[in-house]
Every structure is written in C-alpha cells, then in structure tokens.
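## retry 2 of 3
previous attempt timed out at serialization; input unchanged, resubmitting
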Amino acid sequence: MKTLGKDIDRRGSIALIVLFIILLIVPKFSSYTSLNLFTRIYILSVYAMSYDILRGYTGFINLGHAAFFGGGAYIGGILFKQLQPTFPVFLLAIIVTVIYSSLGAYLMGKISLRKGGSVLTATMITLALGEIVRNTAEKWRSVTNGADGLTFEIPGFFQNRFAYYYVALIFLVVMAIALRKFIMSPAGRVLLAIRENEQRVEFLGYNVEKYKLISLQVAAIAGGLAGIMFGIFNRFANTELLSTNQTINALLYTLVGGTGTLYGGIVGSTVVNLFQNFLLNLRHIHPIFERWLIFSGALYVVVVLFMPKGIVGLWLQYFENKTRKKRKVLELEKSSSKQSV
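## retry succeeded, writing output
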C-alpha cells in the first residue's frame, strides 16, 4: 500500500504540474466568458476543499459552513466600501476574515460538539447557527444593505479579469498545498482516525473534541478566504452566500468529486460548473434547459448511485485494483520460477 501510495502521489504530482502549465496558457486561447467560468471554478474549488476537510476527513456535516464563505465576501465588501478599495484594505480583509472564521468556528464547535450529543443534533445546531448569521446580515441593513445585497468597488489590480484569473489560479494552488499539508500532518491523521472509529481514538487518549475544533477552524478559514475571492470576483455580496443552499453546493461538489480525497473538491466543482454552463448554453434550443437544477439533481443521483466514492474515489479504486492484479501476476511468476528450479 505504501508503494501504491507513492506511485499515486508521483503520478498525481506530475499530472498536476502538467495541468498547471496548461491552465497558465488557457487565457491566451479563451473567451472572456470562459475566463470568468474558470475563475469561478478555481474559487469554488477552494470552498469545496474546505468542506471536504469536515465531511471527508472527520465525517462531520456542518450545514452552517456558508456562514464563513458568505462572511468572507461580506467582510471584504464592507471594508472596501467603508474604507478604500485598495490592496492594503484587501490584506486587512484577509486578517479580519481569518479572525472571524476562527472565532466563529470555535463558538460553533463548542456549542455543537458537546459531549453526549448525537451527530444529527450537532448537524441541526450548525444549521440553526448558520441561519442566525444569515438573518443577522439580512436585518443589519445599515451595514450589509439587507436582502438587496452589497455592491462595492475593488482594488484596481483585481479589476482586470485576465489578472484576476491568475490570482484565482495561484490562490487555488496555494490553498490546495496548504490543506494537503494539514491533512498529511499528525493532526490530519488523527482526524482520519476519528472518521474511521471515533470511540477507538478516544480510547487511545486523544481529545476528539479538540481535533474536531481544529478541523472546523481550518475549514472555516479556508472557506472564509474563498468567500473574499468570490466577493471580489462578483463585486457583490448578498445573503444567498450565507444560506444553507450555499453549504449544500459545497457538499454536492465533494460528493461528485469524491469525499475524503481533497482534490475531489476541485474535480466536483469543475464538473458541476461546466455541466451547468453547458445546460445554460442550450437555452436557445429549449427553455427547459434554463431549469438546470433539474438536470444537476439527476447528475447527483447518478453519481451517488453508481459512483458512491465520487469521480476521484473511483479513479483511485481502479488504480488500486490494477496495481493489485500486477502484484499477483508477479507473485505467481516468482513462485512458478522457484518450482521449475
């Protein structure tokens, strides 16, 4: 398994480097619309990976995760509007979002992860806390502009869509490396163990609640940073970004791509957004394609029924089976050669 893991890592790293080089030259051959689509996919991929830290690596379903994504978008927008749309204010927005996400996740974890509570109870509590944040933003019209949403100016460098494409791409690469480092760390390994058997981990002396809190905070910070980038991309933030629907989107990206794989978030976000865009382009053929949610729902059902491990999970399973067959063939050849001697 160790050799298999190394093979997958080596081949995966080579494939990612090749893909990164291709993505660097994409703007030279893309239309303005395609460029925006790719930028959107990069940002939402980070959001999906942040959710995978929770769902895929601890088995925790947080239905209030959009509070951090939308919170990041609002923090960036409010600071740009109240101060100035400059790069230093952008850096300030990052700092404020990290503090907001970290404290928010800590409070959410302390309330929802109490000992004796069931998984369902914890999930419902996160749903309620997420709705409290969304309602607060909706009622606080003097700052957020309520349900009408908040429009704002952005720093000059980000106004160029070509430049912002590369910013979003670098953001995706940096966050993917950072999150991978986290899941490969000792803390990440404990989270995997918690997902597999929480009682055993507790029996071994680990503080399960503490590690779950860490995963909540890491996921919240990553989601919040993705929120800032998404707000800048749209130059707009509204309460929809804080809603449960936005959390469900992240959950579905990870389901399609493959939970517990990290890169599945990137694959899921890419497949779903390209699929939606393809359907919307068919609107001139028949109006039913405007109802792309119907087809997206069908896609999710197909994935869950026939690829429960998601696209990345299916590929890993195929690669593992192939390697196992090769190993068996080699063992048979060795044993037959020994017998002949």
